[in-house]
Automatic annotation (TrEMBL):
Highest taxon above the source species: Archaea
Lineage, broadest ranks: Archaea, Methanobacteriati, Methanobacteriota, Stenosarchaea group, Halobacteria
Region span, Disordered: 105-133, 179-215
Organism: Halobaculum magnesiiphilum
Keywords associated with the record: Plasmid
Protein name (record): Carbon monoxide dehydrogenase
Length: 215
């Protein structure tokens, strides 16, 4: 199955949206049905242990770029989460593991899989950010997914509206959080400050670049 589309976020910048989409905490908060999303060492995950770890963490949404830099998605790394999805009469909770295959502003690409009892999926997903003429950002996204088991038996006429609803609610959540946290102010370094180099290093990490590349 292929799902794709474009979602426009108003009154924001590519840098601001990239900062938001770098934060696993913000992603988990915006994604409908997501209980947690945590960095893991590989795709071999003990979800019972991970759930305990998640319950002990107290990370909060923030607009502070240094905090986000410490926990931001990293290319080549694995992330795992529990995500409940309502599909027709069933509400499976998928144990999901994804790998960040590419993270280079303005593009991000991930692949992974999820399982839930008698249903499972494999997916490959990417997005690219573009400025719009009216001072916003367009997020072009595309997902290739193979669905198996009970959920697959419901067919695309049931699955497609569910996928579109999840995406719409996700980006609406991102938009709301951007407004609340004013991330565009947080990720802009002041060139007059003595610690300009340190600030730029933080922002460069969030933009997916190394200090060497930005020098």
């Amino acid at each position: 199955m292929n799902f794709n589309g474009t979602f426009e976020l108003e009154d924001t910048t590519v840098e601001e949206v990239w900062l938001a989409l770098s934060d696993p905490v913000l992603i988990a908060d915006s994604l409908p049905g997501c209980e947690f999303l945590l960095h893991v060492e590989s795709d071999d995950v003990d979800f019972e242990e991970l759930s305990e770890r998640a319950s002990e963490r107290e990370e909060e949404l923030t607009g502070d770029p240094e905090t986000i830099a410490e926990r931001a998605f990293r290319e080549g790394e694995w992330y795992a989460g529990l995500v409940q999805v309502s599909v027709g009469p069933v509400n499976p909770t998928f144990e999901t593991v994804v790998r960040i295959d590419e993270r280079d502003q303005p593009r991000m690409h991930a692949s992974g899989e999820g399982t839930s009892g008698d249903s499972s999926f494999e997916m490959s997903s990417g997005m690219e950010l573009h400025e719009t003429d009216d001072g916003g950002v367009a997020v072009e996204w595309e997902t290739e997914a193979d669905v198996f088991g009970k959920v697959a038996g419901m067919g695309q006429r049931v699955i497609n509206p569910v996928a579109n609803r999840i995406v719409k609610r996700f980006f609406s959540g991102v938009q709301s959080t951007l407004r609340d946290l004013q991330l565009s102010d947080a990720d802009t370094p002041d060139p007059d400050e003595d610690d300009e180099g340190e600030d730029r290093g933080i922002v460069d990490r969030l933009l997916g670049r190394s200090s060497a590349d930005s020098s």
